[in-house]
């Protein structure tokens, strides 16, 4: 495993960009169609499903990138340097982030934050579960 891991700052800004790109357009569309406010869309299961699909499927077709990571010039890669698979992304995003965070009431997310900040390899819990890391473009 020979790579240059991306740190917390780049990963945070990439996630923030993705959040804005998905949340604002979908929230506005939801508000226009239903007449409800933006906050009711963000708390529903529809938003979570759409965002989860975005984070899980786009890296498969775009070589490890989502829009925010592409802008920050980092991407999701497998530790064995093989191409990402559906299994990697399901384990990383659905099991490692969504389900584990739900079961641990967010504690796993907090632990992952400290892992990315303090570990030399910058891998979080979901990276270990999915067999992935986030690194710089080569």
UniProtKB/TrEMBL annotation:
Pfam families: RDD (PF06271). One of its GO terms (cellular component) is plasma membrane. Keywords: Cell membrane, Membrane, Transmembrane, Transmembrane helix. The chain crosses the membrane at residues 12-33, 45-68, 98-118. It is a multi-pass membrane protein. Residues 6-130 form the RDD domain. It comes from the Bacteria. It is found in: Cell membrane. Signal peptide: none annotated. This is RDD family protein. It comes from Neobacillus piezotolerans. The lineage of its organism: Bacteria, Bacillati, Bacillota, Bacilli, Bacillales.
